[in-house]
Amino acid sequence: MLISPATTIRETSPQTDSRAQPLRQVAAYALVSLIVLTPCFWHPRIEAGDLASHTYNAWLANLVQQGKAPGLQLETQTGNLLFDVLAQHLGAALGFPAAEKIVASLFVLCFFWGAFTLISVLANRHVWGVVPLLMMLTYSWTLQMGFMNFYASLALVFWGLSLWLSSKRRRWLLPVVAILAWIAHPLGAIVLLVAIVLIEVLQCIDLRWHLPVVVGTIVIPAGIREWSAQHYRILPSRLSVYVLSGANQFILYRQTYSYLAYGTVVFLLLCILWGWIKTGKSGEFRTRIVFSELLVLALAIVYMLPNGFFTSQYSGPVNFLNSRMTLVVLGVAACLWGLTCVTRWQVAGFASLAVCYFALLYHDTGRLNQLESQAVGLVQQLPSASRVIAVIQWPESQVTIHHVVDRACIGHCFSYANYEPAAGQFRLRVTGPNDIVLDQPAASDAVQQGRFVPQPEDLPIYQLYQCGSSDQLCVDALEAGEPNIRVIAERGWLARFKKGQK
User: Fold this and answer.
1) pTM of the full predicted structure?
2) Contact, 2 vs 288, CB < 8 A?
3) H-type helices in 124-185, by residue range?
4) Between 316 and which of 143, 441, 489, 500 could a Cys-Cys bridge form, CB atoms 3.0 to 4.6 Å apart?
5) Is residue 249 included in any domain, yes or no?
6) pLDDT score of 430 more than 80
7) Average model confidence (pLDDT) for the chain?
8) DSSP output for 329-355
């Protein structure tokens, strides 16, 4: 057996402390949960890219069911829909702002405690020292982009692996977790299955066969990539090799984050190396070997993945593949660090990085909240059921911010460049030309690129854009036959900024 003794992972779980001092454990979990949830409530709205789009489309789904959204329909699908279904039904009962807070908070807690539980199961103890790093992972780029379904599926991957590795008596729950992971996002269910198979294979073979297995595992996705490149249109990665090490998960709204990102990844690597040197072959030595190999495999797969690809099944591309999967790399690295000797100076280091990271995040999401408040005020001045598009960008941001118009339109107007119905990847689909949303993904992309030319049937249509500064919004009506870049070029801040950069 690779992981020796087997009971270190499989037959025991980190419950000794909780039995001895249950009240202290409950208090610790409650306090940490409150701290983890703080960024969800420190502003009136959760600013997280596509999150606003998901909430807006949950509202549209209710209109479809009420027969108030001609040209749209709800398709039956099995994946990529967990957040959307929860937000729709809770939104109908409690209102969409409350529903968004509740579901997003639930996903955040599920992700954080799933990762913490997996690390604790692997180390056979509660590793509280990983909390600062896990908080940074919980609020990293994947969540800030608003990829809620994929984010939830990774959270369920952590819980599924915890069940598989903790006790055979709990494995009956694994199919339930796997099904939920698939409903959230199929990619998460695939990651869970592959991880379990690799752990089992590496566990059953002698150490001298590990290298052939690892190399063979790398060859498989490499072959799939070559085959896919010949049969599909591939979108190459836009990120450098060193960013794909996981640093991209901490680079958000401006370049200042990059210093923190590289510092965090380098410090995590040093902590892992120091732990290997310090612990040697003692403790969970074989378990560390397995997760070191999983880390190598995860890095190799991320490097080989394209940024996205087109298929005949969807109108829009399946996008940001390798950018998302770097969160898996960091998750494996966090597990590996938790398996070593976590010291006070390491915890202090990650705590310092986390304080700086969340200080930046608080400031920038606060600016976005102010932008969205302006958007709400501006669209409320427009006639009801108006079509509205938005071109809102921060030049250094790695997170999309133009979705603020989506949430601002709930109950009053329509976000005309809403990409989800035309993409074909979500349950809300467009059936043809309509008064609510553009029916082609290329048209939605053209809005952000300034190439959208309204036709007479699109009128009246209004555009939100940055005018006096990057944090000031204005709204203007567009004219038929004039590209939407005209208003931005004449009165927009973004055009003046780009001109000044030349």
Assistant:
1) 0.91
2) no
3) 131-138, 141-144, 148-166, 174-184
4) 441
5) yes
6) yes
7) 89
8) HHHHHHHHHHTS---HHHHHHHHHHHH
